[in-house]
Amino acid sequence: MNRARGGGDEEAPRQNGSAARRRGDPPLSDGDDAGSDFGSADLQDTDNDPSLRREIRSKYRDLISSVQQNREDMLSPTNNRLTEVLEEANKLFKDVKQAREAALDAQLLVVATDLGKEKATQLFSDGAAFDPAAFAEHLLSIMGINRLEDAEDEQQNGSDGYLPQDAWQRVARKTECCFKAAPSFHYMFGSFHAEPPPPKQRIERQRKAPSKEAKRIMPTQLKKMDESHQEATEKEVERILGYLKSYYQDDPTSPISYYEFVIDPNSFSRTVENIFHTSFLIRDGLARMYLDDDKLPCIAPVEEGEVEAGISSNRKQFILTISKKTWRELIDALDIKDTMIQPPNTQNE
Amino acid sequence: MANRKRLSNTQSSSQARKHPGSSMTQEDDDDVTFTQPSTSQVQRGLEKVTEAQVEQKTAEVVQYFLVKEQKKVPVRRADLVKHVLKEHRNIYPEILKRAARTLDQVFGLKLVEIDPKNHLYILINNLEPSDGASPINCPADPKRGLLFVILSVIFMKGGVVRENVIWNLLKKLRVDPGEKHEDFGDVKKVVTDEFVRQRYLEFVRIPHTEPVEHELRWGQRAEKEVSKTKILDVMGELHERDPQSWSQQYREAHSSQNSTQQPGSSSQR
């Protein structure tokens, strides 16, 4: 039994609640020995009073939680809080009759003895006392703390002053000498990869190729378009020239009436087209128009030899207007039954 | 000339070790601390391999150690055998011996077994530390500063400290384990996980505490890598006291550190 032990309390055996309670206190009497046989619970009515039991248990729990929560406080060598707790527990223990309360008592003792052990270690190793708080202050000055004049700047971590960015690095630098740490091994320049460049080149070449082809395609298409337009007109003009020549050859002496030549009694639009195409012939000097005896215009192809002469002579202009009404009048007047220029779609080629 | 490393202690495969991997220099072929069977097996094994193969394996082991040491995680013998030595495990002691020699002569690093039971190895700096700040001008790792603070408090308080003491101290230094810190991130994780894995600290649960509490001690790596006398020197400077005034710590520093102290480095011997 550790009754007489003074300060140096190590792991107190946790058997009897009473035994380990001595911490330099005068031995307590009375209910202690009775407490050592809590295995045999009295079954008297007063002992079984539930409310009393609850009360005792609740007080024990309070004691336990107060020890746990005020641990730092109790550890401080300046007070006797721990002793007070134990005296309190002693008093409670007098009323303990059942196993449940005894278990709580035991739990309280465990907690208290742990604390006691720690207090004892403090005593032991504080032969040369070390105060972490003072240590912290010294470290802060090493870190280069800036204590601000304004106490209002509370947002910086709650206490005055703030630490520079490299605070911890300063500490590390200063204390490097304490470590025999192996420096980390790293390759000096690292490995290099030869891979990235080639893919880039491939990509560029591929991009260039399609664009050229695309351009090539464009011009060919366009040419066809243009040609089709021009071709159509030219072909038509050629065709009309062919008609003109064949009619002229059939009967060179008989003049071809211009109107009879161009008018298509079946279609006004075709007539206009014919006039349009025939004008090219005249412009190019491949046909000529003249007025016959009746002052009606006639048209005749130009002979091969006369072509150049025709161009150099003074040019005359002839403007022709035609409307649907005029067109019908002409048809009636000239009694045009059939078109001399066949529409191109009906031809077989 | 070459210091045969403390390495020789680490070679016997499964036999009980006499010295916990601390500093004893030994002659190469004096297999006094070796247990016999492994040596003869080694001899036989050596006959079956070419010198080139042995050198190759040695080089691989050296590289393995160097890379592992980047993260400061100790190397397990089992891993070494499984990943590097493979079919040459029977000549393991010879290879390890050569590797230790290379590490010392080429890199100035000492191969140390910090855990004889589980066969864990680390590398520490074998060169004499220079006076004053290190000539290498690389930015110091802030975690080293944190580690110093924790280790020194533990040491000054007798070797064991409840975790709350550390947390409270750190709070005074503007490091709150509940908040993310600029340099350290999750401080609690760094202290209780990273430093523990690196074997700088031991974070042990205290039984019967509710809520659960832990205590912190020096880890196996710290025992080998950190100089208690130097810590006392720094403390003396900080507090403007004579290191000897902390009598208990002073005694502790000089008794346990005798074997691992660098000769002629500190003024207090």
TrEMBL record, chain A:
Q: Where is this chain primarily localised? A: nucleus
Q: What are the record keywords, sorted? A: Chromosome, Coiled coil, DNA damage, DNA recombination, DNA repair, Nucleus, Telomere
Q: Where is the Non-structural maintenance of chromosome element 4 C-terminal domain?
A: 255-341
Q: Name one Pfam family in it.
A: Nse4-Nse3_bdg
Has the keyword Nucleus been applied to this entry?
A: yes
Q: What are the coiled-coil residue ranges?
A: 79-106
Report one GO cellular component.
Answer: chromosome, telomeric region
Protein's UniProt keywords contain Nucleus: yes
Which InterPro entries does this UniProt record tie to the protein? Nse4/EID, Nse4_C, Nse4_Nse3-bd
All residue ranges annotated as the Nse4/EID protein Nse3/MAGE-binding domain in the record: 105-155
What are the subcellular locations of this protein? Chromosome, Telomere; Nucleus
Q: Which domain of life is it from?
A: Eukaryota
Q: Where is this region: Disordered?
A: 1-53, 195-214
Q: Cite the record's Basic and acidic residues compositional bias ranges.
A: 1-13, 201-214
Gene Ontology BP terms: DNA recombination; DNA repair
Function of the protein: Component of the SMC5-SMC6 complex, that promotes sister chromatid alignment after DNA damage and facilitates double-stranded DNA breaks (DSBs) repair via homologous recombination between sister chromatids.
Tell me, how does this one assemble?
Component of the SMC5-SMC6 complex.
Q: What is stated as this protein's family in its record?
A: Belongs to the NSE4 family.
This one is known as: Non-structural maintenance of chromosomes element 4
Species of provenance = Acanthochromis polyacanthus
From TrEMBL, chain B:
Record's compositionally biased regions (Polar residues): 33-43, 244-269
Give the matching Pfam families. MAGE (PF01454)
Which SMART domains does the entry mention?
A: MAGE
Outline the segment boundaries, as ranges, of region: Disordered. Answer: 1-47, 240-269
Coiled-coil features, chain-numbered ranges: none
Taking every annotated instance into account, which residue ranges of this chain make up the domain MAGE? 54-253
PROSITE patterns, per database record: MAGE
GO cellular component, alphabetical, reads: nucleus
Superkingdom assignment: Eukaryota
- What this protein is called in its record is Necdin-like 2
Species assigned in the record: Acanthochromis polyacanthus (spiny chromis)
